[in-house]
Amino acid sequence: MAIPRPGKPVRGSQSGAPIMAVFDLLGRRWAMGIIWNLSRGAASFRALQGYCETISPSILNSRLKDLREAGLIELVSDGYQLTAMGEKLFQLLKPFGDWAIHWAKSVSDDDPARWDNYRTRKD
């Protein structure tokens, strides 16, 4: 399966609007989780499997291929890392992580302090 391409029909858009192509790509199982985990720095295949907990090796391999083809990650000597474009995307996603913690505190029955462990990396 090829990555979604702007200008071609994608999930949610027959015209292939660029935002819909990105949403289609990022909506694939584990795509955002891989990007989120690579924001820590380069990671090997095995390390990514550990970070993503329940991901199967075949899905991880497939998502890494997709994200490489999309120019968001690259293979380096340490494993995989975000490209400049991938880092830019992470910087856009980071505020959603902060918002999600605020949201979790407002709807969860758990101790609100629990969610503080989910803060994104500090720049």
Task: Characterise the protein shown here.
GO terms for molecular function: DNA binding. It holds the Pfam family HxlR. This is Transcriptional regulator, HxlR family. Keywords: DNA-binding, Transcription, Transcription regulation. It comes from Desulfopila aestuarii DSM 18488. The structure is a single chain. This protein has 123 residues and is mainly alpha-helical. The chain has a single domain, classed as Winged helix-like DNA-binding domain superfamily/Winged helix DNA-binding domain (Arc Repressor Mutant, subunit A, Orthogonal Bundle). It contains five helices and two strands; from the N terminus they run H-H-H-H-E-E-H. It has a two-stranded antiparallel sheet with strand order 1-2. The relative contact order is 0.12. The mean pLDDT is 89.
Summarize the entry for a quick read:
Pfam families: HxlR. The chain is built from 5 helices and 2 strands.
Rg computed from alpha carbons, rounded to a whole number of angstroms: 16 Å
Superfamily at the CATH H level?
Winged helix-like DNA-binding domain superfamily/Winged helix DNA-binding domain
Could you tell me the CATH topology label: Arc Repressor Mutant, subunit A
Mean residue pLDDT: 89
> Which series of helices and strands comes N to C?
HHHHEEH
User: In total, how many beta strands?
Assistant: 2
Poorly predicted sequence stretches spanning 5 or more consecutive residues = none
CATH class: Mainly Alpha
Number of helices: 5
Domain HTH hxlR-type: 17-108
InterPro entries: ArsR-like_HTH, HTH_HxlR, WH-like_DNA-bd_sf, WH_DNA-bd_sf
Keywords: DNA-binding, Transcription, Transcription regulation
Protein name: Transcriptional regulator, HxlR family
